[in-house]
Structures are given as C-alpha cells and as structure tokens.
C-alpha cells in the first residue's frame, strides 16, 4: 500500500476513533441530562404540592393545572392509598404504582421508581409522604413520562451519528490532501531522480522547505550527490591523466628506442667493418639515447613512488647549507656559461624534510634556470624565513615563460620551449611539485618574458603541512 494511503488510513482511523469516543460520550451526557430533567421536573412538582398541603391550603383547580404543566401528572392519596385528587394527564393506571407510594408512606421519606402508569411508556414516579393539618391527604405523587425525552435522545443520536459520519468523510478527505501535500516534495524528488541518468550527477534534487525533515533529507542527498559528482570528476581526471601519461611516456620512450634501433642495425649491417668513424659515432649516439632513456625511466619511477606515497627519510637540516651545496654543483655544471650565485642568510635556517628529495628539487630548479638562461646571464639562489615556514627562491635572467604557459609548466611531459624538446623529459617540474606537496609545501612561479623567472619553494619548519606563501621574494633586478 502506498505511503499516501497508509497515512490517510492512519489519520482517518485516529480521527474516527476520537470522533466516536466524543460522540458516544456526548450522547450519554445529553441523554442523562434529558432524563434527569424529566426526573427533576417530577420531583419539583411533588415538592410544590407537598408544600401546599403541609401549609393547610386547599389545592384549587388553578394550582393543579399549574402543577400539571409539561405533561406532569399529580396524585394525592390518603393513608389507605385511595386517590383524593388526580390530574387528567394520567391515563389508564394499573397496580404498578402501588409500591412507590407504599414505600414512601412506610418509610416516612420520599421514594421514586420507574413504572408504566401514564400509558405513554415508561414513567418516572416520585412520592412524598405528607400530613395535612386537617384532612386525610397522606401521600403526594408526581410523575412524568420519559417519552418526549427519549424521542429527543433518539434525535440527538441520529444527529450525532450523521455528524460523525460527515466529519469522518471530511477527515478522510483532509487526511488524503494532507498526505498528498506532505509527500509532494517526495514526488518532486522522485521525478528529478528518475530524470537523472547514470553518471549524470550534475543535477540537484529540489528542496521545497529546507527546515523540515524531507528538506533536510533532500539537502543531505544533494550533498552526497555533490561529493559523488566530485569523486567521479576526480576519477575521470585521474584516468585521463593516466591515459595521457601512458601515451606521453610511450612517445618519449619510442624516440630513443628508434634511434638506438637504427644505429644498432647500421652497425650490424656495415658500419663496424666498412666505416670505423661512423661506427664510433653510432656507439656514442646509442650511449646518449641510453642515458636519455635511463633518465626518463628514473623520472617515471620517481613520479610513481610519489603517487604511491613512498615513505620519506625525514630529518632536521639546514636549508641554507643544502641550497649552497646544490648551487655549487649547478655552477660547476654551467662551466662559466651562466653565473650561478648563492646569497647566504645571516643564520642557519632549520627545517624538517627528506634531504635527498629536497636536494633533487633544488637540482631540478637550478638545472632549468641554467638551461633557459642565455650565455652571460645569471642565476641567483636565496633562502629566507617565512611565517611558519622557510622558502627557497631560484631566480634567473632567462627567456621567461608566457602567461598562457604558466598554468601548464608543472604538467607531466610539458615543455615550454619546444625548440629544446630534446634536452629534457618534461618531468622535472612535475617531480619537484610532487616532492614539495609530499612535504606539505608548495612551489610557485612568477615570470616575465625577456626578463626572467623566479621559482619559490616553501616548506614547513616542523612537520609536513600546508604552508601558504605569505611574502613574495623579489625577483632580481
């Protein structure tokens, strides 16, 4: 059974039970009130007649007529039960009334009972013993038929039954409308969810009232959809990067392999025997391409270990001393073509990091700076303290990087200068960023074409964690 009908049935049954209980209670209360009115009227008229007799007055026709209003009948008896006065409202009477006046006369106090005496059905009789100062009146009886009261009770019962029936129908209709209104947001959510195809998680479910239970549930589901959508997007981006990475790696490996294969075939077919000089050059080419492949494979392995979260050998080191060491190595490799200078800081700059990996980052940044700086240019290395971290800046007076290339230079296999494509694998900056992020640090770059570039590595001083770059390190010049 649908929830709408279950709610309707439950509400209707609950309201119906309440109406039935209230109707029955009201019916009995009104019935009791009407019947009590009959009895109170009879008792009042009997007491009035008793008071008149006790006062020694004579019951005149007007008094009897007044006492007999509203269908009340009055009987005055002597000590033997003989009827001295009776009202015309009393029809055919039998012996059933004898017990009432006899009980009152015997006990000396009022007595009452329900008997059939008037001919209109059940009557209420109330008898009061009385002794007149003069005369033989000993008992006053007053009675009234329940007929009119019972007719009123039946009418009230019919009205209540009809009212309860109409109210129950209205309750069913109202409960259905209430359930439909309450479940309308659910239907809207269901319709929207049905329209959402597989993998189409960009849509959101409508929220009619965010403060009620359904609204909070819908908001929670929307949050779940947002997280799922983000997770699917990240998965697609990861798969896309993996496919691109595999394609780029295959392309990068194919070039040296083709060269090695060509030179090897040439050596095998004729160069070894016919042209020793050509053979020597081919062997040199094979060695160069082999070294290039070795560097590419090592870079790929470095990235793979970083992606898998390889453990780090973290220690406490002086960043300035490490930067000076890397600067001296890069200066020796530049062989005077480019000036490589380290600007020392006034004291040690201690930080927690993996020495070999950070040294690798320094080497990558310095190698790129020297590579893309024209002859006679300069490369400057600085280390400084940042708020909550330390920073190393490598600045050069090289060719610079265009604005549209800046967001791409950290992508794997990307090379900003296609003319120098053969000089590197395009993985260096990707490795540097990966190492920095594994330490909770960042790498940022600022560059201007024809002026130079500055790469800034920021690391935390204590333990890996995200450290914002709060102060720029000025470019040289």
Offer a quick outline of the entry.
With 477 residues, the protein is an alpha+beta fold. The protein has helices at residues 3-54, 61-67, 98-107, 147-195, 213-274, 276-307, 319-334, 355-371, 428-438, and strands at residues 73-77, 83-86, 111-115, 123-129, 139-145, 314-318, 339-343, 350-354, 378-386, 389-396, 442-448, 452-460. The longest helix has 62 residues, at 213-274.
Our count of domains comes out at 3
Q: CATH fold name of the largest domain, please?
A: Beta-Lactamase
Sheet with the most strands?
5 strands, antiparallel
**Number of helical stretches of at least 4 residues:** 9
In the CATH hierarchy, what is the class of the largest domain? Answer: Alpha Beta
CATH superfamily of the largest domain: PAS domain
Indicate the structural class: alpha+beta
CATH architecture term of the largest domain: 2-Layer Sandwich
Task: Classify the beta-strand content into a percent band.
Answer: 15-25%
- pLDDT below 50 for ≥5 consecutive residues: which ranges? 92-96, 418-422, 465-477
Q: What fraction, in percent, of the residue positions are helical?
A: 40-55%
Listing every helix as H and every strand as E from the N terminus to the C terminus, the arrangement reads HHEEHEEEHHHEHEEHEEHEE
Quick one: overall form? rod-shaped
Integer-rounded radius of gyration:
55 Å
Placed side by side, the strands forming the largest sheet appear as 2-1-5-4-3
Distance between the terminal alpha carbons, to the nearest Å? 80 Å
On the 0 to 100 scale, the average pLDDT is: 77
């Amino acid at each position: 059974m649908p929830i709408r009908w279950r709610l309707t049935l439950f509400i209707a049954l609950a309201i119906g039970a309440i109406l039935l209980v209230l109707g029955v209670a009201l019916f009995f209360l009104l019935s009791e009130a009407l019947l009590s009115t009959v009895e109170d009227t009879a008792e009042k008229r009997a007491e009035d007649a008793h008071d008149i007799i006790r006062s020694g007055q004579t019951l005149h026709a007007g008094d009897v007529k007044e006492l007999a209003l509203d269908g009340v009948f009055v009987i005055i008896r002597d000590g033997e039960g003989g009827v001295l006065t009776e009202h015309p409202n009393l029809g055919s009477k039998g012996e059933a009334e004898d017990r009432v006046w006899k009980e009152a006369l015997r006990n000396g106090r009022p007595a009452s009972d329900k008997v059939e005496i008037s001919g209109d059905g059940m009557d209420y009789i109330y008898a009061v013993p009385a002794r007149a100062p003069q005369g033989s009146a000993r008992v006053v009886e007053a009675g009234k038929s329940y007929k009119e009261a019972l007719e009123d009770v039946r009418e009230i019962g019919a009205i209540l039954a009809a009212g309860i029936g109409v109210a129950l129908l209205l309750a069913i209709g109202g409960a259905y409308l209430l359930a439909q209104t309450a479940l309308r947001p659910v239907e809207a959510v269901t319709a929207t969810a049905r329209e959402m195809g597989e993998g189409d998680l960009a849509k959101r479910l409508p929220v009619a009232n965010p403060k009620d239970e359904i609204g909070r549930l819908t908001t929670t589901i929307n949050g779940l959809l947002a997280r799922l959508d983000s997770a699917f997007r990240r998965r697609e981006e990861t798969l896309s990067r993996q496919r691109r990475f595999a394609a780029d790696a295959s392309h990068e490996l194919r070039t040296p392999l083709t060269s090695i294969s060509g030179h090897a075939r040439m050596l095998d077919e004729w160069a070894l025997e016919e042209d020793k000089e050509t053979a020597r050059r081919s062997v040199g080419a094979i060695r160069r391409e082999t070294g290039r492949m070795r560097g590419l494979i090592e870079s790929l392995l470095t990235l793979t270990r970083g992606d898998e979260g390889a453990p780090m050998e973290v220690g406490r080191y002086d960043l300035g001393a490490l930067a000076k060491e890397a600067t001296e190595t890069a200066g020796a490799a530049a062989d005077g073509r480019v000036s490589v200078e380290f600007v020392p800081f006034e004291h040690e700059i201690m930080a927690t990091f993996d020495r070999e990996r950070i040294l690798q980052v320094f080497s990558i940044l310095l190698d790129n700076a020297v590579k893309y700086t024209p002859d006679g240019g300069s490369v400057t290395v600085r280390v400084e303290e940042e708020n909550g971290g330390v920073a190393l800046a490598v600045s050069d007076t090289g060719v610079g990087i265009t604005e549209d290339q800046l967001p791409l230079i950290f992508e794997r296999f990307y090379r900003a200068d296609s003319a120098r494509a053969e000089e590197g694998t395009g993985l260096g900056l990707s490795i540097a960023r990966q190492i920095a992020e594994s330490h909770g640090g960042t790498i940022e770059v600022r560059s201007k074409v024809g002026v130079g570039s500055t790469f800034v590595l920021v690391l935390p001083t204590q333990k890996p964690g995200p450290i914002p770059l709060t102060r720029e390190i000025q470019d040289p010049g």
